[in-house]
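Work Package 4 report. The design task specified in the project plan requires that, given a folded chain encoded as C-alpha cells, an amino acid be chosen for each position. We show below one input record used in the internal validation round.
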C-alpha cells in the first residue's frame, strides 16, 4: 500500500511578517495591561505613598534648608521614574508567564524573526509604562510643578526612553527564566538598589565618595537626572537651593549635559535589546 504525503507550506519570513508580529506583540501587551485593573492600581500605590506620605514627612525635616520649595517637588521626578521602572519590569516579566503556559513557544516557532518579537515586547512594555507614568504626571500641580506643555512633553519623552531601556533589561533577565518566583527575586535584587542609588529620593550633591561612585555607575541615575533637570528648569528657585537639590551628574568634576545623559540611556537600551535578542535566539 502507498500513502500520499500531504505537503505543508510554511510561509517565508519577510519584513512584512516581522512588522505584523511586532504590532501583534505590542497590541497584546497593551490589551493585557488594560484588562488588568488590579495591576494598574497596585503599580501606582507605592510611588503615590512615597510622594505624598514620605515626601511630606521628610519635608518637615528639611523645610528650613530649602526655603520656598516643597520637598515633594524634589521627589516628583524620582516617583515618575519609580512608576515607569516598576511597570516596565512587570511587563517584561510576563514573558515568564508566556513560557509557563506555552504561548511563548508558539511565538518562537512562528515564521517571524525573534528580533521582531523582542522589539515588540520592549515597545509594548515602554508604551504601557509610559501610560502609567502619565497618571503620576497628572499629579504635577499637587506638588508644585507647573503644567507647562513643553515640560510635560519633555517628561513624556524621557519616560518613554527610560521605560524602553528598563523593559529591555527585564526581557533580557526573563528570557532564560522558567518561573515567576525566580524573576521577581532577581528583579528585586537588581531594581531596588538601582532605584535607591539613582538620586530619586536624595540629592546627588555632597555625597560621600563611595556613594558618589555608586550613583555615577548606576544607569538609572542618567534616566532620573534629566527629568529632575526638566522640572527644576520650569521652577523659580533660589540658586543655592537649585545647586543643592539639582546638581546634575558629574564625571571627574565636569557636569554632563542632558543630551549626553539621554544618549547614554539610549545606548544602554540598545545594548540590552541586543543581548535580549541573542538570548531569545538561543531559547527553545
Amino acid at each position: 500500500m502507498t500513502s500520499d504525503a500531504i505537503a505543508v507550506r510554511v510561509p517565508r519570513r519577510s519584513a512584512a511578517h516581522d512588522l505584523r508580529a511586532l504590532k501583534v506583540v505590542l497590541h497584546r501587551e497593551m490589551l493585557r495591561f488594560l484588562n488588568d485593573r488590579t495591576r494598574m492600581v497596585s503599580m501606582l500605590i507605592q510611588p503615590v505613598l512615597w510622594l505624598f506620605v514620605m515626601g511630606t514627612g521628610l519635608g518637615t525635616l528639611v523645610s528650613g534648608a530649602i526655603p520656598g520649595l516643597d520637598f515633594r517637588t524634589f521627589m516628583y521626578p524620582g516617583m515618575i521614574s519609580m512608576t515607569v521602572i516598576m511597570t516596565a519590569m512587570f511587563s517584561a516579566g510576563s514573558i515568564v508567564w508566556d513560557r509557563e503556559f506555552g504561548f511563548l513557544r508558539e511565538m518562537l516557532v512562528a515564521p517571524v524573526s525573534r528580533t521582531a518579537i523582542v522589539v515588540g515586547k520592549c515597545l509594548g512594555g515602554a508604551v504601557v509604562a509610559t501610560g502609567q507614568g502619565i497618571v503620576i504626571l497628572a499629579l504635577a500641580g499637587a506638588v508644585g510643578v507647573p503644567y507647562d506643555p513643553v515640560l510635560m512633553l519633555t517628561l513624556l519623552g524621557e519616560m518613554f526612553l527610560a521605560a524602553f531601556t528598563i523593559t529591555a533589561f527585564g526581557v533580557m533577565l526573563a528570557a532564560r527564566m522558567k518561573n515567576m518566583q525566580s524573576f521577581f527575586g532577581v528583579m528585586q535584587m537588581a531594581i531596588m538598589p538601582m532605584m535607591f542609588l539613582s538620586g530619586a529620593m536624595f540629592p546627588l550633591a555632597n555625597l560621600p565618595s563611595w556613594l558618589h561612585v555608586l550613583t555615577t555607575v548606576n544607569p538609572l541615575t542618567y534616566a532620573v537626572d534629566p527629568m529632575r533637570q526638566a522640572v527644576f528648569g520650569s521652577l523659580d528657585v533660589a540658586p543655592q537651593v537649585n545647586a543643592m537639590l539639582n546638581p546634575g551628574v558629574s564625571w571627574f568634576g565636569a557636569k554632563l549635559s542632558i543630551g549626553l545623559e539621554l544618549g547614554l540611556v539610549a545606548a544602554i537600551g540598545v545594548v540590552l535589546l541586543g543581548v535580549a535578542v541573542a538570548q531569545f535566539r538561543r531559547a527553545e
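Residues 175 and 274 are 12 Å apart (CA to CA). Validation will be extended to a larger panel in the next phase.
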